[in-house]
Amino acid sequence: MQVKEIMQALSLTPCSGHQGLDREITGGYVSDLLSDVMGHAREGEAWITLQAHKNIMAIASLKELAAIILVKGRRPDEDTASASDSEGIPILSTPLDAFETSGKLYQLLASPSGESLP
Amino acid sequence: MEFTYHIEGGDFSRAGAASSEVKKILKQLNIDLAVIKRVVVALYEAEVNVVAHAHEGIMKITLAPDSIEAVIADKGPGIPDIALAMQEGYSTASPRVREMGFGAGMGLPNIKKNCDRLEIESTVNAGTTVKMTTFFTG
């Protein structure tokens, strides 16, 4: 599923990195601890977090994540947004919290037969 | 083949820049992607450790036919008890650094998991040298 499809389905607000909206999302990872994401997130995943500072982009880029979803209405810092633009990794914002966002994303990504994600 | 990067202590806006440069080079050299993924995690954690704890440091990468060796050497406070620092969850990071989502005590464990050989030497009030080696096969 592409970032833009998830953006529409979850009514996410695109903040930056628009040129990456057709990236493919293969799963998700939820954490506010950067080393946790560094150690355990996988390429192509959407990262759900409330951290909005520039270092999230360093991680997203090094791990080749598909997108970052900022929860509770958070917006990327200015330098975070420009890094997102130059990396082409979108940052999207939602008023929902991490629990609600994860639940909705999981439902979207799980197969129609109801099988769980790998 | 060798290349070296400078790491500035305290400058979180640049944290990850050296690791990112190394990643680009390894990709250009067509190194196995699974190896790159591991190396990048270990390098990033070592780089962030310099930014979070030290005054300055260097990252020196040596590419051999069978392995990548990275030496991250810093001038800084050093680690008084390396065994303790290796424990998952142990951190001496400042409250400011923790608020950013760093300092969870996962950095050194991440490094250990993502390289094949790890040597850490440290002198209190002088600095720390982390040497990590990742082999291409096996």
Could you give a quick summary of the protein structure above?
The complex is a heterodimer of chains A (118) and B (138). With 118 residues, chain A is of the alpha/beta class. Chain A is 38% helix and 17% strand.
In terms of topology, how is this protein built?
The complex is a heterodimer of chains A (118) and B (138).
Chain A lengths: L2 H7 L3 E4 L10 E4 L3 H7 L4 E5 L5 H9 L3 E4 L7 H10 L3 E3 L4 H12 L9
Chain B lengths: L1 E7 L8 H12 L4 H21 L2 E8 L3 E9 L6 H5 L8 H5 L7 H7 L3 E7 L3 E9 L3
Antiparallel strand pairs in B: 1-2, 2-3, 3-5, 4-5
Helix pairs in contact in B: 1-2, 2-5
Q: Which regions of chain A are unreliable across 5 or more consecutive residues at pLDDT < 50? A: none
Mean pLDDT of chain A: 95
Number of helices of chain A: 5
Distance between the termini of chain B: 22 Å
Number of domains of chain B: 1
What global shape of chain A is seen?
Answer: globular
Number of helices of chain B: 5
Roughly how many Å is the radius of gyration of chain B? 14 Å
Please identify the structural class of chain A as seen in this structure. Answer: alpha/beta
CATH architecture of chain B: 2-Layer Sandwich
Spell out the helices and strands of chain B N to C. Answer: EHHEEHHHEE
What is the helix fraction of residues of chain B, given as a range?
25-40%
Overall structural domain count of chain A = 1
Estimate what percentage of residues of chain A fall within beta strands: 15-25%
Strand line-up in the sheet with most strands of chain B = 1-2-3-5-4
The counted number of beta strands of chain A is 5
Explained architecture:
The complex is a heterodimer of chains A (118) and B (138). Chain A is α/β, with parallel strands linked by helices and 118 residues long. Chain A has a single domain, classed as Udp-n-acetylmuramoylalanyl-d-glutamate--2,6- Diaminopimelate Ligase, Chain: A, domain 1. In chain A, 38% of the residues lie in helices and 17% in strands. Chain A has five helices and five strands, in the order αββαβαβαβα. A five-stranded mixed beta sheet of chain A has the order 1-5-4-3-2. In chain A, strand 3 (45-49), helix 3 and strand 4 form a beta-alpha-beta unit. In chain A, helix 3 (55-63) packs parallel to helix 4. In chain B, a hairpin with a 3-residue loop joins strand 4 and strand 5. Chain B is 36% helix and 29% strand. Chain B has helices at residues 17-28, 33-53, 82-86, 95-99, 107-113, and strands at residues 2-8, 56-63, 67-75, 117-123, 127-135. At the A-B interface, helix 2 and helix 3 of A face helix 1, helix 2 and helix 5 of B.
